[in-house]
Amino acid sequence: MPPPNASTQVNPHRWKWILASVLAPLTIILLVARFWHPRTRDTLQVSGAAVGTPKWLLLASSDVDHATNGCPEDLVIPFTSEAVSFANITDACATEVSVFADGYAPVLVSKPNWTSGADVVDVTLPPPWIVDLRVVAEYPAATDTAKAAVDVANATLSQYRAGIIVTMTGGVMVIDPATDGRAATIRGGQVYGAGCGDPIAKDLTLYDPGSGQIFVFFIDAPPRWNLGDSDWGYDCDSRPNIIFVRRGARLETLAHELGHAIGLKHVGAGNDLISYGWTADNLMQSSAFDPAITKPVGRLTLGQVYRASFDAVSWLQAGHIRTGESKTCQAVSAPDSIYNDPVSTATERWPCPRGTLDWP
User: Fold this and answer.
1) How far apart are CA 260 and CA 286, in angstroms?
2) How far is it, in rounded angstroms, from Cα 58 to Cα 141?
3) pLDDT for 127-152, tens place per residue?
4) pTM of the full predicted structure?
């Protein structure tokens, strides 16, 4: 018998190769299907804002949540669309959501219902909150000064998305401090208003905290103002809606004192300012309001706007101006060596995010 044609001989290993070439990709496909899943993402859905409005999402968790469960810690995500997605946050996290936007008031959702699935958090951005000032001026020129100072305050609050508009619906009341009982009271080298040391004003309804107004006294230069040459503004800790501004102070002084009214503390001065992680142009520094000082001042961090918006001590809450969730932020403790005031430090970050948390 002749030998078979070489071309018709069957390689005994051929079928093994064919079988392996088919099974290997199939095995890979099965393994991928078994062990790999598309990463679940959560979504923030925002309504109430104009199309294309710049917005910032802040995802904040406690130090313990971050270290133990990998929850996001002060994660800031800028976006302009109506929705933004982010890596899934599980039910092991107590991560809160806050949203800031150009031209709108910030919103806090402190307890979203996180699951292991694709969660959607819906928020509606409200228009800015209106903070109305009742301005009492001890000299006629303060009328123009007050209007200019309000413009500066509004520009600062708008630039850093505080969601606050300052108004003066009642205009400016010019009085003679020598004869009008509604003037600020000077006693023992200190400036006082009703509820700020000695409530002796004749018209006590002017200081009614239920009105939601903030009362601003523009005080004439010495001898009426005798707090000291380094003081250009003053606020009442016991009544945050009473503010004093000294004649000749920088226009930014009103914005600084309004910052105190909405719950912001000094961030230090000089070396204290920098050593605690603040920039040299922060609005809440304690030594930049002498008119002889010309360096820029007015910056607000995202952490400061967070406190101004949501902290229970802010006049937005205390004056019944804002509606929505609020919380009690942690106390501050680091000293300001110039004024011996407490200042917010970079290390104090929960139950509210750290004060130095800045805009990306």
Assistant:
1) 11
2) 43
3) 999 999 989 888 899 999 999 999 99
4) 0.82
